[in-house]
Design brief:
Blueprint lengths: L1 H15 L12 H20 L6 H7 L7 H4 L3 H23 L8 H14 L1 H17 L4 H27 L8 H21 L5 H15 L3 H10 L6 H4 L1
């Protein structure tokens, strides 16, 4: 248990490393401006795509002279890496808060809270996935980014797998292939978020609710599936559409 906790802390620390430029000017102005550029870059990369979000547009949105961009970041690629780090860190930090597999007496609560957390973080999660797609389609492979992406999915898989495995061990869930089940949920969550980007008619929150009910039903806990349905009702026909 101690090793697992140390590993989660290491992942979160790595994700938050290097989110601002290394130069220092002796006051907080540089950090504030760098953070403003970072948050606007995250938004514009997600909205316009990496190629179309120009340095000038990002600097203008952050109210920074475009000529000063290179004072804060080495280049646009460095800004993409920093933006991806920030977005992943936001999700990982929140998952860290709900990672109660070792503490709670009820692994179903861990899964419920994981779904609730993803519903709450739908915007940063969407930004993370969009940035990952932008990075992948760009063709270049950067070691630090590859590690961040790996950390992101490893943390998600570790949480889901630990909760499912404990539920099986305690006789709460039926026996399933733990890794494949966790992979199914993680992959389908990504698919729902991306589908909502491509097809605006898709209601991603309702679709995530439906995925939660499917998982509990598959684990042989119909009571939890019913509870999820009561907590997050789907309007008639919504599940079919989504």
């Amino acid at each position: 248990m101690q090793t697992r906790k140390a590993s989660r802390k290491k992942i979160a620390k790595r994700a938050t490393r290097g989110t601002v430029a290394t130069r220092k000017d002796g006051n907080g102005t540089r950090r504030v401006r760098a953070d403003d550029m970072l948050s606007n870059a995250l938004r514009l990369f997600a909205q316009l795509g990496y190629a179309n979000a120009t340095i000038k547009a990002i600097a203008d949105a952050a109210d920074v002279n475009p000529a000063l961009f290179y004072y804060y970041y080495e280049n646009k690629e460095a800004l993409l890496i920093a933006a991806l780090r920030q977005a992943i860190a936001a999700v990982l930090d929140s998952h860290e808060a709900v990672d109660t597999v070792d503490k709670t007496e009820d692994p179903t609560e861990v899964i419920r809270r994981w779904f609730e957390n993803n519903r709450r973080l739908m915007m940063p999660l969407s930004q993370v996935l969009k940035l990952m797609l932008e990075y992948r389609t760009a063709g270049n492979r950067i070691t630090s980014v590859e590690r961040l992406i790996s950390d992101f999915y490893n943390a998600e898989m570790a949480l889901l797998s630990a909760a499912i495995r404990r539920g099986i061990r305690e006789g709460l869930f039926r026996r399933v292939d733990v890794e494949r089940t966790a992979q199914f949920v993680s992959t389908h969550l990504d698919g729902l978020v991306i589908a909502a980007t491509i097809r605006p008619a898709v209601d991603v929150a309702r679709s995530v609710n439906h995925l939660e009910r499917i998982l509990f039903d598959y684990l042989g806990v119909p009571g939890e599936a019913a509870a999820a349905a009561r907590a997050h009702p789907v309007e008639a026909g919504a599940s079919a559409k989504n």
